[in-house]
Write a structure and sequence with these properties.
alpha/beta, 260 residues, eight-stranded mixed β-sheet
């Protein structure tokens, strides 16, 4: 792969161009990873699609080979940065293929910069607030209250970090310097952005996904005009990219060939 670092919105973003055996007029497939991942997590799927289009894979600023942006970005800032980079590329059909967090950015990109892409293929898309029972909401509120009280009594340092490890999500515990970005993006509700999407959109979820359950896909489908929803049996949020790769590439090839 050819590697390039581009400067967008004051940040550096590393992009990886995958060699392709596709026809010259084939679309550009832009691959955007999920939270805590890098381009490498999507590379096997991209390699399986080499005959369908030319692929470029991203490491979002703050992930993989790309340094952190100077400020805590939300998905709008990530989308604006990607639109700036896409605007430097030769004209042609472009499809945004993304997993989880990358799907959040894709929704914002399509809503804010409709000229930048021609289709969305979103895998385990996040972007809507999860639906919880009253009991679950009360439990979560109590947990947050206990954490706030305990944090106020403990100075910054190893003891407070242990509190974060105990009360925070697994993503938060592992996020390190990305925590301000995680806190900003995880709270976003992209319902309005989804309603503004006008390009062809496919939504793919694993049947056993607990991070972004299929019902979230149903709600997104209702918001995005003309979108299509596929639920792949037997897969969850993570193994849909690995064990579910063949089903993913089948759906993606159909999407590409349909002219989306």
């Amino acid at each position: 792969m050819r590697r390039e670092t581009v400067h967008v919105r004051g940040a550096d973003m590393t992009v990886f161009y995958l060699d392709s055996n596709s026809r010259a007029a084939a679309p550009l497939l832009v691959w955007a990873h999920g939270w805590g991942h890098t381009h490498a997590n999507l590379l096997p799927v991209a390699e399986a699609m080499q005959s369908s289009g030319r692929s470029v894979l991203l490491d979002f600023p703050g992930f993989g080979a790309s340094p952190l942006p100077r400020e805590a970005w939300g998905t709008a800032e990530y989308a604006d940065a990607c639109a700036e980079w896409l605007g430097t590329l030769p004209p042609g059909r472009r499809i945004w293929i993304a997993h989880s967090f990358g799907a959040r950015v894709g929704l914002q990109l399509a809503a804010r910069h409709s000229e930048a892409i021609d289709g969305l293929f979103l895998i385990a898309a996040a972007g809507l607030q999860p639906r919880r029972s009253l009991k679950a909401r009360l439990r979560l509120a109590a947990r947050r209250a206990v954490f706030r009280v305990a944090r106020s009594m403990v100075p910054e340092g190893p003891a407070r970090e242990r509190l974060r490890q105990r009360f925070g999500s697994a993503d938060y515990a592992r996020a390190g310097p990305l925590r301000p970005i995680l806190s900003k993006t995880v709270a976003e509700d992209l319902s309005e952005a989804a309603e503004r999407v006008r390009c062809p959109t496919a939504l793919v979820y694993g049947e056993q996904d607990r991070e972004t359950p299929p019902e979230m896909g149903e709600r997104l489908q209702a918001l995005i005009p003309g979108s299509r929803l596929y639920v792949l049996r037997g897969f969850d949020h993570w193994n849909v990219l690995t064990e579910g790769r063949h089903q993913l590439t089948h759906r993606l090839a159909e999407f590409v060939e349909s002219g989306a």
